[in-house]
Every structure is written in structure tokens, then in C-alpha cells.
């Protein structure tokens, strides 16, 4: 299994966004890399049109990565209150 980021590493605003990543097998990951239009349809079906549009807006919002915010988010995932 591989983590496939819909919007690539350059889109720091969605780098750690759970809606931006899919767990895919090697074959599916390669298929979507070679057929990006199919990946778009997959994401729209999986997220729905509205959530897909919001992900696209977040991906195109210029934002520097906030390492402190990421560490707090990860800590909350591992040790929720």
C-alpha cells in the first residue's frame, strides 16, 4: 500500500490534509499517475462534488507549512484527550 497525494508536495496547504491522500496499491497509484483525469473522477466520487471543490480551493491557497501546527495535530491523533 502507498500514500497517494492528490495534490503534490508543492501544495503545502494540503500536504497533511486527510482528504488529499488516498491509500492505494502500487498498481492503482501508477494508474492514477498516468491517468490524472481518472484520479479526478475517483476523488469527486469519493469526496462528493462540494468537498472536492473545497479541497481544490485549499490546495490553491498559498500557505507556508506550519510545523508547530502539524506537530500539535499529530500529537492529538496519537494521544487524543
Describe the structure.
The protein is mostly helical and 81 residues long. It has one domain (2-78). It has helices at 26-34, 36-47, 49-59, 67-78, and strands at residues 2-5, 21-24. α1 (26-34) crosses α2 (36-47). The longest helix is centred in the middle third of the chain and has 12 residues, at 36-47. The model has no long low-confidence stretch (mean pLDDT 90).
Q: Quickly give the structural class.
A: mainly alpha
End-to-end Cα distance: 30 Å
Shape: globular
Characterize the main sheet: 2 strands, antiparallel
- Give the rounded overall mean pLDDT: 90
Annotate the secondary structure layout.
Elements (H helix, E strand, L loop, with lengths): L1 E4 L15 E4 L1 H9 L1 H12 L1 H11 L7 H12 L3
Antiparallel strand pairs: 1-2
